[in-house]
């Protein structure tokens, strides 16, 4: 799976879109979270994979309480636990161990595997190597998504986005640098008004930008060729946790049958949970 996936589907076919306000989490904080988990794997004295999973789960509870239960940190912790389970299965069943193709199956299922049978120095090394690959994946996400820009953006198009997103910005910026001529309509995303920052940085890259209030999204949607947004989490039922105002934009796109593209990292896939994260979820990991 690519570190960034561009998920596209006609908005008229979507069942529903949900959005809520969230605080943008810098990539550096996510990498720091992974470094903490990597340090536990490297330094902590654990006898087998089951013991390591318990240690990281307990650390995850503490980390989630300190970060105000941020969804992206939860997704990061679950992704690291998934890597540990995969390496443990390889240790138990051999290098030809088969994994479920669906990411969520291995990510959230408890399963009937006895991870206490997976141990040894080689397991520690393989887990650290898998975590290093995850870090490399996260550090190259913007380059990966930008490389697909010409496949989705064509000349003389009017693209609508909402708020500020570095992923969307890099995506549009790369397309403009490669010769695509298009216009971008940016909804301001009240009350954060992060759309003002997006309009400013795009205009500096010689991209034609129109800044509009969120309330104008429906009236202008019929003139738009496509909608490109970003999110902080993608739940298993297709729900997006996104910036304030995204829901209204999606409803307008659905009404006008405008295609919607979502720039997201594979690490953002997460189990459907209430907005207030329940720490007892970790008891099942």
Automatic annotation (TrEMBL):
One Pfam family matching this protein: IF-2B
GO molecular function annotations of the record: guanyl-nucleotide exchange factor activity; translation initiation factor activity
Subcellular localization: Cytoplasm, Cytosol
InterPro entries, A to Z: eIF2B_beta_subunit, IF-2B-related, IF_2B-like_C, NagB/RpiA_transferase-like
Statement: the UniProt record of this protein carries the keyword Cytoplasm: yes
Keyword annotations: Cytoplasm, Initiation factor, Protein biosynthesis
Primary localisation category: cytoplasm
Cytoplasm found in the keyword field: yes
PANTHER family: TRANSLATION INITIATION FACTOR EIF-2B SUBUNIT BETA
Subunit structure: Component of the translation initiation factor 2B (eIF2B) complex which is a heterodecamer of two sets of five different subunits: alpha, beta, gamma, delta and epsilon. Subunits alpha, beta and delta comprise a regulatory subcomplex and subunits epsilon and gamma comprise a catalytic subcomplex. Within the complex, the hexameric regulatory complex resides at the center, with the two heterodimeric catalytic subcomplexes bound on opposite sides.
Protein name as it appears in the record: Translation initiation factor eIF2B subunit beta
